[in-house]
Amino acid sequence: MTRSRRLVGIAVGGAMALSGAVLTAPAQAAPNADTPVATTQLNYINPVDVRYSWVGASGFQYALGNAGNLQWAEYPGVTPPAHAGPDDLATGTDVQNTGTSGTVTQKHRSTGTTATVTIPTGQTYRAASGWSVLTQDADGALHVLRAAADGTTTDLAVTGLPSGAQPTGTYATGGSVRRLAVTYTLDGTSSVGLVDLADGTFRTYVGGVGSEQSITFNDSWLVVNRKAIRVDSEPGTAPAAVSFPAKPLAVVGDQLLSGDPDFISSPADEALTATSLATGAKRTVLADADGAFRATPDGGLLATAGATASDFHVYRVLPAGGGDVSAQPVFTVPPVRAKVDGLMVAGGELLMFGNATPTPGWDAAYAVPLDPTGKPTGSQVRRSPFIGSSPCLGGDAACPQVEALGDGRFAYLYTYSDGKESVHVAGDTDTFRTEPTGSAGGRIGTGTGRYVLYNGGTPATQKIADFPRGADGETALDRTRSAAAIWGQRLWTPGTTQGSVVAYDLKAKRNVATVNTGAPCTPSEIQAVNTWLYWNCGSAGPAGVHDRATGRNITVPAGPSRLADGYLVREDRTSHELLLTDFHTGTATTRTAAVLPTVDQNTGGNTGRWAVDRFGGNVAYLTAQGQVALVTAGVPTSPLAQMEAQTDAAAGPTTQDPWQPVWQLSKPSTWTLTLTNASGNVVRNLTGDSTAAAVRASWDGKWGDGNRVAGTYTWRLTAKARDGQGPDLALTGTTTVN
Fold it and tell me: Are 233 and 199 in contact (CB under 8 A)?
């Protein structure tokens, strides 16, 4: 089976940074614009390959991916080895050799000291390790060359090869600068031995190795194929068989490290395994080691490993006490930026839509958690299946059409080959729900929680797609198209009198409120967030916001806008300014949140190159470099409120089929769900953090002590706003256990 790496790294030089998920240095703000609180990016989910050019005791030289330029990384917190010259072989663990004919230049990496080895006429370069260069003369004899203090080259003939032995051309270096492995044939049999580079003596250790050999060694052990022998064993000692998974990579201390990143049939194949050459015991050193490996001349191993591209590191594996090994991260592999094709922000989550895989057309949404100011607080996680084709027709100016629902899910349009569209809702890695519309050329309107507004093109119908907890979609309402908005379980549409807006309860299936917004027209657009109702009379205006909590009517600037909690955002397509209008005090004030690139990315507009969090959040936009900058809105949020709930009791409930209530709230929270029995005694407390702005709990009907008693239970949900603004929210109701 060929390698199949996970479909899910900024060079830091000598510094160690263990989070490649977010770039916390703010993007440069344009004049008179807000300074971003952070910048992040959509990372390719395949980690970038690390190609080791040289490894030593102070650091390593490498290239990333297909890049041709080599870079250096120093090990953090490591004192570079001192230079003592070619007479001290131990200092060769930090020597870089260049050149294979005429002369070999040697540079002690940590001090910069250099030496030159001149290859005598009639000798041919074979290998180099530390300060030593191995050559072969015309008669087949081997020599060890080293630079002398006076600038000359010493020549030490290798002794101990059996008479008639012919080196095969296999010369292997390993975890030692004192030894070098040589394969030779004699009487048709291949054998492997080690040259002691200090005195030039050769000793055969393993015979009958065949034409294909894997050779790993350090100053204590030599492992050839699946036979191991101590270097200091008595002459004539037979090597012992050793069992280990995958391919041998290095001998570190008394441990053989093995793995095979090129052959992955299961997650277990990604492990870097240590096998004790003394006892045969095995353990996993790194679980996600599907990168490159390189034995180091100081008896260690470099391994690239990590669960995701945003958490991929170079680890240095060295001997530890008791014959074990330890692996420490020494370098963060920078992630490679993918192109963002759509943006969403909802409930303290940034959702970036795009293709982060090597396969064309595999779009998906990737979530990054944010704190209340908009700063990323974790790595990106794929939050939708891979979408094998575009979610809208080619050339569609509104593509991609995506709408974050505030419960960790998002809606998008999918166009079938007949041109008819379907509303899809996704929110986890592998599944999505769908509801056909029967229309073409439509647009997704607003949506929250379980409800999504769809405005059909042909025919021009308006539908509310309902995606309840754990169920397929269905059409909750089919009506004539008009201005409309959804917030929670209410649909807001124009009333029968000028400026009036009517609320229709999608569960009760009746009108429940009529509000006079003060609009001098029948609104051509309506948006709703908490107690705020936005209206406009067309792109030329006028436009305003009505506060249902106070009855105030507030005039705001005209033009295509996106309503949030106490403010709205619009894009000036001439000046490229992203303008934020704060109206929460009753008077509208506008500032420049960002100056967008003059060249459009994607289609422009909301969800194309900028997005706003309607659920108590902030603003995100694409930079000219294709990164995502985040801006703090700086507007007080409304008190935490319930928008909709699904609390019907489950049959049972049982461990396999628990009660799984959902409360769609107006902003993120931390929550406690308390269950009490008929006597008023607390039988269970559940706690958690909301998914975006939705509280999702699960109860199997058992008490804290494991008992399960049939009856009616009272539940009480207490939610605390994660942004610390406003009082706690308390809700109560009942459920049953039968």
Answer: no
Q: Report the C-alpha gap between 480 and 464 in whole angstroms.
A: 11
Burial of 213 (0-12, 13-18, 19+ CB in 10 A): middle
Contact 557, 577 (CB under 8 A): no
User: Residue 12: pLDDT band by 50, 70, 90 thresholds?
Assistant: very low
Give dist(CA 694, CA 697) in Å, integer: 10
Q: Nearest to residue 386, comparing CAs of 408, 360, 404?
A: 360
Report which residue type is found at 326.
Answer: S
Classified as helix, coil or strand, 528 is strand
Is the Cα dihedral 12, 17, 19, 22 positive or negative? negative
Q: Which of 558, 489, 549, 551 is nearest to 523 (CA)?
A: 558
What SS3 state is found at 684?
A: strand
Q: Reduce the DSSP state of residue 92 to 3 states and report it.
A: helix
Report residue 651 as tokens: 């049959």
Beta bridge partners of 621: 610, 629
pLDDT at 8 over 50: no
CA distance 191 to 210: 8
C-alpha angle 71-75-78 in degrees, rounded to nearest 5: 145
What DSSP string describes 250-316?
EEETTEEEEE-TT--SSGGGG-EEEEETTT--EEEEETT--S-EEEETTTEEEEEE-SSGGG-EEEE
Query: 527 and 563 in contact (C-beta within 8 Å)?
Result: yes
Amino acid code (one letter) for 578: L
Closest CA to 421 of 450, 452, 448: 452
The phi-psi region of residue 550 (left if phi > 0; otherwise alpha if psi is between -120 and 50; otherwise beta) is alpha
Q: Are 666 and 615 in contact (CB under 8 A)?
A: yes
Residues 143 and 155 sit within 8 Å (Cβ to Cβ): yes
340-359 pLDDT, tens digit each = 988 999 999 999 999 999 88
Q: Which of 442, 666, 460 shows the shortest CA–CA distance to 549? A: 666
Q: Report the C-alpha gap between 390 and 342 in whole angstroms.
A: 12
HSE at residue 148, side-chain half, CA atoms within 13 A, is: 8
Mean of pLDDT values over 110-134: 96
Of 324, 252, 326, residue with least CA distance to 315 = 326
Q: Is 15's pLDDT higher than 50?
A: no
Kindly tell me the burial class for residue 160, based on how many C-beta atoms sit within 10 Å of its own C-beta (0-12, 13-18, 19 or more).
Answer: middle
Angstrom distance (rounded) from CA 464 to CA 181: 73
**Chain segment 29-82, per-residue pLDDT in tens:** 556 899 999 999 999 988 889 999 999 999 999 999 888 899 999 999 998 888
Cα 58 to Cα 51: distance, rounded to the nearest angstrom: 17
- Give CA–CA dist 157/92, Å, rounded: 20
Torsional sign, CA 699, 700, 702, 705: negative
